[in-house]
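note to self: the first set is below, dont mix up w the second
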Amino acid sequence: MPESKYSFLIPTSNNGQINIPLTEGKALFVLGANGVGKSTLMHNLFQRNYSHAKRIQAHRQTWFSSNSMDMTSSTKVQTEQYMKQSDNQIQSRWKDDYSGQRSSISIFDLINSENIRARSIANAVDEKNIDLAKSFSNIQAPIQSINELLAIANIPIKIILGKDDKLFASKNDSPFYSIAELSDGERNALLICTDVLTTEPNQLIILDEPEKHLHRSIISPLLSSLFQKRKDCVFVISTHDVFLPIDHSESSILLLRNCQWNGSNIISWDADLILEADQIPNHVKRDILGAKRNILFVEGENESLDRQIYQLIFPDLTIIPQGNCSQVEKAVEGIRETENLHWINAYGLIDADDRTSVQINNLSDKGIIALNCYSVESLYYNLEVVKKIAKRYAEINGADENQLYTNAISGIIRNILPHKERLCSRLCEKWIRNNIMTALPKHKDIAKRNKFKYECDLGDIIQKEEALFDRLIQEDRLNDLICRYPIRETPVLTGIATGLGLTRENYESSVRKLIIDNADTKEYYRILLKPLADLINKDK
């Protein structure tokens, strides 16, 4: 879709007309206090993109009287037409004539999408097209997606579609009860997830004040996961909460300070477009005072695998990806060394990169744990976890779990061997860069005016690494190979997933679901990450 499909032109009193870039797969936060014209601006945005926009309003009704489809398909289509016309009227900024119907339509869409998937699989099986049935089953079920989203957002409930097409919930494995009995926050999260996941492809999703009824520790990871699942859409989020754009540093921000009225109409805004969240002015950041949080900075990006798995393993932490290890170190050290941010406990999690024990201990003293692995894939594809996934799918499909596991791991050595030189040189590159940075002279050394010289035998370094690689192969130490090298650059991960009859995306989603469903799996990961867990417990 061309970028010009979405229009967001805003007249300002300080910057002329700003043409806000709206690109699929990206998010824009509209940040400002009450009374600065956010609602009017969101309404104008919806009007200009009427044919391909969905607006989830701030004054939405978050309760529903039924947990089933309480309208027919034809009634639903007609009601949606009326709602869209109503949303286009100026009074929709503060009034909603269809508040009850909106929640009913959300429930209808969720149940309907679940049934459509089930019918597609059943029809393919009836036609004896098993490959087609498998391809449909590999598409994550809507309710399964919602349960994963809720778990990542620290909401301990599961949704199921029960008898007579009714939706039920269970909290912390309690007996199932109607979703109408969920708390305000739980219902709000469910409705936001449902509305976003069931939106038509390539739409503009306008979300007003998603933090209503939801704690910031919930809405931030929830939004991250929704952005990831709907990369085909553009998100514009109106909020008062400065944490949301700070937590999503790859998003743009439209900062509203004031607006100018002409009669009953706003003619311009005092506004600035900020392309990176860390550029939010200090006077806005003051809003975070008093909001003590435990933050874990990890490597990777907002859409990477890191954030999703760590949020499930450590649900009490706010997970913020910071790119590479140097950025993680700077973020943690910056917060820990800044007295006016003393209400935030900051931790870091980085890859060990063959650091010495002295370097690892020094990092731990600074609140940063260095894991003995190359990347987060070593957690997802840890062979104990692969074995658990094999067992789960064997139970579902009536297969032999040992055979599934054997299929998954049988190609690891075959898939990794051709990449030996590149994998070893990549690992050596990180080790050499780390050592060079450590050896660089400090200002005290420079003041002494001595000569500085650094030398290393590259041939010897890579020869030793290749010898270790060969030894791991010979000893069949598959987990060590997965842990030590950048295996995502090889066919290894795809081979493991395919051996289980899954795509990589399905496998990784299954791992996250296993953490949600199985307390032993979460505990296994916490044992793997014991140095971090110990560091956090020490600060309690």
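second set (the one i keep forgetting abt)
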Amino acid sequence: MKRRSFLLGGLASAGLRAAGGPDPGFRLADITRAAGLDFRHNSGAFGAKYLPETLGPGCAFLDFDGDGLLDILILNGSDWPGHGRGGGAGLRLYRNNGNGTFTDVTQKAGLAVPLYGMGVAVGDFNNDGFPDIYVTAVGQSRLFQNTGKGTFVDVTQKSGLGGRTGLSTSALWFDYDRDGLLDLFVCNYVQWSADHDVFCSVDGKNKSYCTPEAYHGSTCWLFRNRGNGTFEDVTAKSGIFDTSSKSLGVAMLDMGGDGWPDLFVANDTQPNKLYRNQKNGTFEDIAVQAGVAFSDDGKARAGMGVDVADFDNSGTAGIAITNFDDEMMALYHAGKNGAFVDVAGRAGISVPSRRRLGFGCCFADMNLDGHLDLVAVNGHIDETVRNIAGNHGYAQAPHLFLNDGHGGFRDVATEVGGGFATPRVGRGLAYGDIDGDGDVDLLLTTNGGPAYLYRNDVAAGAKSLRLKLRGVKSNREAIGAVVRVTTAEGTQSRMVKTGSSYLSQSELALTFGLGKRDRAERVVVQWPSGGVQEFKGVAAGRFELVEGGRLG
């Protein structure tokens, strides 16, 4: 069913093991309630069917207080003006207590700010060692600077980011000019406001949610960090300005391996963008030439979320994109001459994803076997879909595609326990090691519903190498650094990155699955500054590396 026609026309026990499939090698446990995560998303819906009500919310893992434990940030909508019902607003920050529980510290941290929140990007823009938070919103997005004392201050106006409103969605921090300072990229969806809401209807009488075709597109924004606490809007002169875009997801990558960060932008009903860094402060959109602007049949799909990673250990990053139902997920493998090939079909991803509407997605090695798996959350945009014959459902089950290491993926969502395969109206998705046990756990959000926290329990004997980088000549969080870890099985590569998924951000620390091996034979770190460090015989475990220093 096409989007327009829908809206406008009409370790595991034996019981959990798949028949004919190997044991996934891990189990998930729903620890939401036990962890004290009492969040519930407020879309503000009151019957007017405003477009933003279908989109949120995002989420993030971050260590805001520097205690070495991952905290949780979840975005929230708000009541629309004149239609207040006392619902939650803005965002919620939960501090990790280190004992499996979290405490809501939103008010104490100075983040109880009224806004209709959508997405989040976390990055240390002033290189002071404390992560700052950029929150995208309907209207004015906000930049919250971390004081280093457990609190944040709103520096939106002071930083020069004020005075710009939009329906902003995903965002990321990256150092596009490699001056050691984090710059900011912000996606905008369409030109929408409550005052200019379009009436869309299936029956000609009752309001329904509009598709993005009902609205003009809106350009993404690029802000250059001046290094004095302020930003310069370089959207136009950088080549990013494009009002045809209807952007929902963004991820960074390094296509040519030259150390200069490029960007992929997932657009909804418009061609995707692939912005190649020209190394002179400008970008060129090469999505058409690279084969990622359209589907294989030449159509612009409804791109939602995106992640980029070296999922086949080829040394070159590929791209995963979630799309509308009946459009299937895309999985692009990097081919020759900078071109990409969609291998979703032969990888086993197309058919399972066809009848689901995907949002957040991320590559993560869930069972620590050295191969990146692919997780995606799904859910429709309008609950009235259940009234349509042959509908695909409003709440939809997520995917957890296990990588077999030979180019194939198998959906094991129903095999890993914890109720993970329960249909939900999924939106945001992020991963991070909340309990320090070496594997990554999952956080997902739902539209108009709760957030869910899943602890990952990997089978006994599986080991990992976890690296947290700190830049010196590079930006402090080493965003853009690439690490390659070699064992007898081959070489894995990971990039330190913000953004990705949908409205969300995962942890910055890198996790390399070693399987049963006790150590990696070789670790090579390529810093954003251009410096390279190599280490041999690195044992499994958790390490921190300061640029130019030793593993510690």
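remember for set 2: The chain has five helices and 37 strands.
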